Amino acid sequence: MTRSVALAGATGLVGREILRGLVADPSVAAIHVLGRRKVEALPKVTSHVVDFRALPALPRLDEVYLALGTTIKTAGSQEAFRALDFDANLAVAKAALSAGALRAGLVSAMGANANSRIFYSRVKGELEDALAALPFESLVIARPSMLAGDRESLGQPARGGEAIALAVSRLLGPLLLSGDMPRSSGRGTAAI
To answer: Buried (b) or exposed (e) across 10-19, using 16+ Cβ within 10 A?
Structure first.
């Protein structure tokens, strides 16, 4: 059986890796990439340039992957950050459900918690909760910590503080325990 999937955020650091995996997966017949700009031409990929505030009806889908994300600094304000990280991801998820998607995957963040005093973590947690309330048969939430990769090739600025944090984490990482435990709604929702 082949699958038809949607991917939002394919031009970002994580999204482009998800896209590569989907293109290489023989069980995926069609990949509908939703973004503010076209992606490179790839087999099985249809690029849809969309306004996330007014999404068109999507073609029939089996699953959706949500990798839209930014930083408050890049977005320019908390409101602009929330518009992308929460509103746009949730809009894509709802549009995918309307197109028949039964499964969803979300790239969230370590420490995501709707009750957090930290705005970034709170928005990520609120999105997780909003997606868990939708009637997907399964929802997988990935909570990576710092994302390392070649941002310059994506046209994104280098992050000096991130480079320092990554160096420190390589030194201290083996000494630290993760306090981020998987969560499940009992309906096929898991955070990893």
So the answer is: bbbbbbbebb
C-beta of residue 46 within 8 angstroms of C-beta of residue 28: no
- Residue 89 burial by Cβ neighbours in a 10 Å radius (0-12, 13-18, 19+): buried
Among residues 46, 55, 52, the alpha carbon closest in space to that of 28 is found at 46
What's the CA angle centered on 61, arms 55 and 63, to 5 degrees? 100
- CA dist 125 and 118 (Å) reads 11
Q: Which of 88-97, 119-128, 159-168 has the lowest mean pLDDT?
A: 159-168
pTM of the model: 0.80
Res 186: pLDDT: 46
Sketch the domain layout of the chain as residue ranges.
Answer: 3-191
DSSP 73: H
Structure tokens at 13: 């650091």
The pair of three-digit structure tokens given for residue 64, joined into one six-digit string: 């959706």
Tell me yes or no: is domain 3-191 CATH 3.50.50.60: no
